[in-house]
Design a protein that fits this description.
The protein is of the alpha+beta class. It has 3 domains: 13-72; 84-150, Roll (SH3 type barrels); 161-200, no CATH class. It is 26% helix and 24% strand. It has helices at residues 13-26, 41-73, 147-150, and strands at 84-88, 105-114, 119-123, 134-136, 140-142, 173-184, 187-196. The strands form 2 sheets. Strands 4-3-2-1-5 form a 5-stranded antiparallel β-sheet, with no helix packed on it. A two-stranded antiparallel ribbon has the order 6-7. Strand 2 (105-114) and strand 3 form a beta hairpin. The longest helix is centred in the first third of the chain and has 33 residues, at 41-73.
Amino acid sequence: MEYKDHEGYTHDWVTLLPAVQLAYNTMDHLKKNLLTIHPTAKDFHEMWKRACETASKCIAEAKEYNKQRWDKSHMEPDFQEGDQVLVSKLKFNNLKGPEKMRDSFVGPFTMMNLVGKNAVEVKLTEEFSRKHTVFPVCLVKPYFQTEEGKFPSRKKNPTPPEIVEVEDSHGPVKKVIRARKIRLNGRDERQYLVRLKKNS
């Protein structure tokens, strides 16, 4: 039975006594710096057993969660023997040029065969012949010879109109009406719309 005095303190010593006894027995002794009680072998065994069961349960749940995440986004590689593939530059440390200017993938190389489900064996060229020929599929991607094969849905830019050269026989330029800058054959060129002077 719980009883509180006018200051709000409880006087249910019968129910509180086991907790007080446990707190007293498990605190460090001031002189010897030791616990006054120790768990028995049976209690320690039960505690160890519960800890192992909890750890096994947590590991099983984590494995199941990781499996679901992997199965949700994982796709089996569709590489075939003889395909042309590119390999990530992460496995090549003998490439020339600055790191930032290098291509992300090296190749193309001819695929020899699949090694298991998650690795491929490729035939490296002479400059990379000292490297191991087996790579995980996460570092390999198909090689397309043309941009049309890589991006089939990409629309081509319209062909710019043919440039007609102005001959000197038309006379000198009277006024520049408009100017524009276009890119032809990989170079920037400037074009002008002009008004010519009439020949007298």
